Amino acid sequence: MRPSATPKRQKGAALKTPRSTAKPAVEKAPRRGARYQQTRFSSRLRAWGRHHRSMAWDSFLRLVRYPLGNLLTMLAIAIALVLPAALWLTLDSARLLDAELDDSATLTVYLDLAADDAQALRIEEAVNAEQSVLDTQMISAEQGMAEFQQALGLDDVLAGLDDNPLPISIVVRPESVDPAAMQQLATTLEALTGVDEVRVDLAWVERLRNLAELGRRVALALGALFGLGVLLVVGNTIRLSVESRRREIEVVMLIGATHAFVRRPFLYSGAWYGLGGGLLALCLLGMGNHWLALPVAALAESYGASFSLPQLDVTGSTILLSCSTILGWLGAWLAVTRHLSSIRPR
Questions:
Q1: pLDDT band at residue 13, thresholds of 50, 70 and 90?
Q2: What b/e sequence results for 161-193 when a residue is b if at least 16 CB atoms lie within 10 Å of its CB, and e otherwise?
Q3: C-alpha triplet 90, 324, 224: angle, nearest 5°
Q4: What confidence tens digit (pLDDT) does each residue in 118-177 have?
């Protein structure tokens, strides 16, 4: 008897499993590892400020730890700063003297010997009418003779003269002390009727101004030269400090420190060197001024004048300290940058 086909179909149907339309639920594993946390700009700024304060204080303590050697370095910087600063103070006193000479720069108009007082008054009015004239002063022949006798000390000799050989003169104070303007004014005044001669003596004023200009250029040259000396002194000192801490720098660079991070304490050391040298320079300038004040005053008094040595005011002291600090910082930066480029941490 042939078996029926129905059971086979039922058995094949029993082997087939129905397809499920629902996907199995898969649980997501939690992420593990380091998280990235964004820091605020204010936090980074506070950390940057704290590190700067820490490095400034640490570099100051390192200087205090070895006072003698560091004091000698600052003294070398101070001597390099004193010389151009003293020359600049001398030029300041020369500028004050030049201003006084500008006020005393005058022209002297000599009238004819035959000119009387009335004609002298008319000539003085004509001189005052010039736009480039500030004021005038008439000196009579008798006043001129009296001043001449007093200046030369020849009262007895000049008293025996029958006639006064000196003419009436007019002292003119010009508006501009420029030599070309004064020479043009002298030419204009010589053309007036009754004027015999106009004398302009500005050669000594021009010599003094040329000397002052020469002194200013010498002061600038010395300032640049001694500024370079400060850079060399600070750079050599910082170079030795970098070499003594070479192993420490290599270790710090191995863990990811940047050049700016490594440079920071040495830059503050250079700034401290410059600031200390500037303070010592101010002390040396004050001592030198006190030491030379009495001889200079006595010399000026012997010539019938009063003169005192100029001193650095608050502005000048601030400029000197700022320049010394900047030079120290710059010397340290150059030295550290040069040596960091040669350090290869292993």
A1: very low
A2: eeeeebbbbbebebeebeeeebeebbeebeeee
A3: 60
A4: 888 888 888 888 888 888 888 887 777 677 666 666 555 555 555 666 788 888 888 777
- Mark 136-156 as b/e (b = at least 16 C-beta within 10 Å): bebbebeebbeeeeeeeeeee
Contacts of 11 (CB under 8 A, 6+ apart): none
Could you give the CA distance from residue 321 to residue 272 in angstroms, rounded to a whole number? 11
**Amino acid at the residue 140:** S
Q: What is the model's pTM?
A: 0.61
**DSSP readout, 202-253?**
-HHHHHHHHHHHHHHHHHHHHHHHHHHHHHHHHHHHHHHHHHHTHHHHHHHH
**Structural tokens at position 136:** 């005038």
Report the SS3 class of residue 169: strand
Q: How far apart are CA 325 and CA 321, in angstroms?
A: 6
Specify the pairing of strand 107-111 against strand 195-199: antiparallel
With vertex at residue 170, the alpha carbon angle to CA 165 and CA 173, rounded to the nearest 5 degrees, is 145
Nearest of 234, 232, 252 to residue 343 by alpha carbon: 252
115's enclosing H/E stretch is none
Q: For residue 282, give Cα distances in angstroms to 66, 86, 146, 277.
A: 23, 10, 50, 9
CA 70, CA 62: separation in Å to the nearest integer?
A: 10
Spatial CA neighbour of 182 closest among 134, 123, 129? 134
